[in-house]
Amino acid sequence: MEIKKLTDALSVSPQIRVPDLPALRAAGFRTVICNRPDGEGPDQPTFAEIAEAARDEGIEARYLPVKSGMVNDSDAALFGEHLRSLPGPVLAYCRSGMRSATLWALSCASGKAFTEIVGTGNAAGYDLTGLAGRIASPLVVSQERHDIVIVGAGAAGIATASSLLARAPGLDIAVLDPAATHYYQPGWTMVGAGVFRPETTARSMDDVLPGKVHWIKAAVAAFEPENNAVVLEGCRVVKYGQLIVCPGLKLDWNAIEGLPQTLGRNGVTSNYRYDLAPYTWRLVQELKGGRALFTQPPMPIKCAGAPQKAMYLSSDHWQRSGRLDGIDVEFYNAGAALFGVPDYVPALMKYVESYGIKLNFGFNLSAIDGRAKRATFTRTVAGGAAERFETEFDMIHVVPPQTAPDFISASPLADAAGWVDVDQTTLRHKRFHNVYGLGDVTNTPNAKTAAAARKQAPVVAHNVLAALGGTSGIATYDGYGSCPLTVERGKIVLAEFLYGGKVAPTFPAWLIDGKRPSRLAWLLKERILPPLYWRGMLKGKEWLAHPRLAE
Q1: Structural domain includes residue 140
Q2: Which of 153, 173, 15 is nearest to 96 (CA)?
Q3: Considering the chain, what percentage of its residues have pLDDT values greater than 90?
Q4: Which of 128, 376, 387, 407 has its CA at 20 to 30 Å from residue 163's CA atom?
Q5: Are residues 294 and 213 in the same domain?
Q6: Do the Cβ atoms of 330 and 358 come closer than 8 Å?
Q7: Can you tell me the distance from the alpha carbon of 52 to that of 62, in angstroms, rounded to the nearest whole number?
């Protein structure tokens, strides 16, 4: 925990976790206030988890979620009321602590000089000068400018920054992201199967960002593309010549009734969160019999194969340990097919049949009662009516619905569905010609995978450099995506495809036939892809990903 004291009554911090609560009680805190909406990050516990742990320690817990950069006066007033009425001292937290510090600044603006507020913020490590326009209107809000601004330091953002610097080392690039840790999310399926240790999938952001970029550790509040500006939390403004948008997507845990209250216990798990993937493996090891459910929500989701990867690897473990006959495995998929590219379905069906998995299509998980071990699904029946179906479980692997982040869907960059609206070939924004998008946040009709980002990053790097006059030609993206479907421990069906579901194998069939389970494909996933990610993709090495120029 990195706790920053603002006043004797209030401290702020980045995201806290359940194991932190005993230490907070020992430090004397009597109330925690959460200012971060659930689902902002892949390593974020829900408020319900924090609140339950706080109650166990005798600490009050309040939920005052504020979207990044959207702190309004009513939020600040309620925050101030909490400080006055709740037992102190109080710890308020969000992703970085900035939203909490902003709420405090606005809540006491009428009683403190602006210089005093800014000085208090600076002492705690938070730059509150961007609030000048709201607290001290005669002052001018400071701005900074960079030739290229990248929103998001995930796989897509870092790969693009590195590809740009590999082409033009002198570029002025700023990367905007408040996260302190970078995750290799494709590895979480392997963590959930006991193959990888969780810590091997996480590294400090300082260690993976290119040394020549300016890292602005702050969240984006809004976009002003007409002014070539990005507004950060705390009202700080960053101007750009070219903008690259790749913040990933939002996991909407709250869309499933009761889920936040039971995640990580009662047999409810998900490999889509860093801290829960080890719980998946624990459940798989401990389950001796009963019912194991695996769910998949409506598309789009990141890595559409991940829900069934967990199912196959779990079933394989139960089969190897002689327990599968006593476990009923069921797959509840909101979609209508096992996999979106039909060429790979026959190989997958052989495993479905060998594991005795029951497939249920058109069923979307809508509610869950962890203590009662009951899950409720909704499906559309003839005539368009919605039908609810309830079933029991001993273990359930849940995949949450996924949407564009709120600051994207509410921005001028979004299409009607909330995703960044780009040309699917050039990845250039359809309305703002100095804006590009890639990764999970765009509306391109490809699979949302790290493999797609690996192919997209060099395309965006080339096209941005061309827009700056540093090269010529237009690079194109063909929709490439890859999904290594872990059908058993030691074998993978390596699905590779382009836009429209066209099969596009990287290797000759005599080496790796993607339509058949392969030991070599498993070695690729286990031994080669992680170092390729850390030492290749994130370092600007475009092995097998060099962009193709339009003719």
Answers
A1: no
A2: 15
A3: 87
A4: 407
A5: no
A6: yes
A7: 11
Are 50 and 156 members of one domain?
A: no
| Per-residue model confidence (pLDDT) at position 551 | 74
DSSP 487: E
Per residue in 311-357, pLDDT tens?
999 999 999 999 999 999 999 999 999 999 999 999 999 999 999 99
Among candidate residues 102, 135, 168, the one where a domain is terminated: 135
d(CA 294, CA 125): 44
User: Alpha-carbon distance 532 to 97, whole Å?
Assistant: 34
The 10s digit of each residue's pLDDT in 198-227 is 999 999 999 999 999 999 998 898 899 999
Q: Are 394 and 266 in contact (CB under 8 A)?
A: no
Residue 151: inside a domain: yes
Structure tokens at 55: 């109650």
Whether 302 maps to a domain, the answer reads: yes
Q: Which amino acid is at 114?
A: F
The answer to whether residues 180 and 230 belong to one domain is: yes
Cβ(217)–Cβ(209) under 8 Å?
Answer: no
Q: Are residues 258 and 243 in the same domain?
A: no
242 and 387 Cβ atoms separated by less than 8 Å: no
Could you give the CA distance from residue 306 to residue 324 in angstroms, rounded to a whole number? 21
Residue 445 lies in a domain: yes
The residues facing 486 across adjacent strands are 492
Tokens representing 493 are 């069906």
Q: State whether 396 and 319 are in the same domain.
A: yes
- From 106, 135, 164, the end of a domain falls on 135
> Distance (Å, rounded) from C-alpha 257 to C-alpha 453?
32
235 given a catalytic annotation: no
- Average pLDDT of the chain is 94
Expressed as residue numbers, the domain containing 311 is 253-402
Q: Which amino acid is at 394?
A: D
Question: How many structural domains is the chain composed of?
Answer: 3
pTM score, whole prediction: 0.89
Residues 57 and 182 in one domain: no
Examine the domain organization and report whether 434 and 526 are in the same domain: yes
Residues in the chain: 551
Which residue in 94, 108, 246, 303 is the catalytic one?
303
What are residue 495's DSSP bridge partners? Answer: 483
Which of 34, 108, 235, 483 is an active site residue?
483
Q: Specify whether 428 is located in the same domain as 544.
A: yes
d(C-alpha 48, C-alpha 261), whole Å: 5
Confidence class of residue 136 from pLDDT cuts 50, 70 and 90?
Answer: low
CATH code: domain of residue 189: 3.50.50.60
Contacts of residue 2, Cβ cutoff 8 Å, sequence gap at least 6: 13, 14, 97
303 as an active site residue: the answer is yes
Give the CA distances from residue 447 to residues 300, 365, 477, 528, 543, in Å, rounded to whole numbers and listed in that order. 8, 22, 13, 21, 20
CATH of the domain at 83: 3.90.190.10
Q: Are 408 and 247 in contact (CB under 8 A)?
A: yes
Lowest mean pLDDT among 60-69, 75-84, 200-209, 378-387: 378-387
Burial of residue 504 (number of CB atoms within 10 Å: 0-12, 13-18, 19+)? middle
381 band by pLDDT with thresholds 50, 70 and 90: confident
Beta pairing class for 10-13 and 327-333: unpaired
